Amino acid sequence: MRILYLLLVVLFVVVQGVAGQSYFSSPAHACRFRRGSCFFGRCRRPYHQIGSCGGGSSCCIRRRWA
Question: What range(s) does the Beta-defensin-like domain occupy (predicted)?
Fold first, then answer.
């Protein structure tokens, strides 16, 4: 019975550690999730910037004309 309490504590510590992790491991993954592409420097036509990919890259998405 004592090991059950120990396992419960270990499980609680693991869950606490996972809760602190962000969903996206890098800005590039976040850009792809938003349907964007990473380009070095500034975005060129027909793209516009929606964020940053880090390292001097911009997260760009194709402009949609209504």
Answer: 29-60
